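WARN  no MSA supplied for this record, continuing single-sequence
INFO  ligand: zinc ion
INFO  echoing inputs
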Amino acid sequence: MGNLEAELEGFAAGALWFYGALVLFEALLELRGNTHFYRLKDTLCSIATGLAYTGVQVLMRGVFFGAMFFASQFAPWQLDTTPLTFVLCYLAVDFAFYWHHRVLHEVRLGWAAHIVHHSSTQYNLGATALRQSVVEALYEPWFYLPVALLGFEPLAVMLALQVNITYMFWPHTQHIKRMPRWFEAVFVTPAHHRVHHASNLSYLDKNYGGTLIIWDKLFGTFAEEREAPDFGVLTPIRSANPWIVTTASWRALGRDLAAAQGLRARWGVLLCPPGWAPNGEGLTTRQMQAAGVLKAGPPLA
Ligand SMILES: [Zn+2]
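INFO  complex generated
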């Protein structure tokens, strides 16, 4: 393949235009008056968080590359980037993304950042897809080190991740009900991802996939869209202020850490799933699903 650095730069810039064009298209559909998927304040808040996230992501690119390069030194072999090895690299990145995303949901330290992306009760390309926490940009590189250990070129890993992130944009829409059956069977679609963003009991912690939905089917986290999704989180952040949206979960985490007695309880607060409490009074998603009860927590803001 050609100059990977140029491809990465070109793709990242092109992705921003792709995002803008799709948001504009969805906004035009909204203005025609057929749908009510957008709220202006929510959308402006999401654009602000998305820009901050992209800025930190660009700043982190050097760290990302350095970490990938360091890890690739320990690979048992080095693979040149060809169309075939890039497809294999993409599969490895998508597999890593599945676990990265699962950790963001099932470990409180991850959820404190990722809740921002799930905090809107709207579901659209402007107010949901763009909404990101800057902290996630700091987490990102470390989950892809194992892919570099497989011998793929560091820049190929970064390009595959950029393509993967770009793919994940379009499923954040309510305009597409179902894709063709063969496509739904293999790829992540709007129907799958609406489930992921819903707080219905059976939808919680489901459909983590980035490009391929097969990982969820393999690892038992797949759910079909059967009932109307109730978008948002169980501990709502009722603000359109980007600073509050980004920091509310960290303040809650700080309060829980301060209240925890002893080292074991504090590590539990950081590393156990959201909802876990040292006194045993909390309910995690798994516990709620096993008991068949949906229990919302207090709003974070
Ligand atoms: Zn998520």
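The mean pLDDT is 94.
INFO  checksum written, moving to next record
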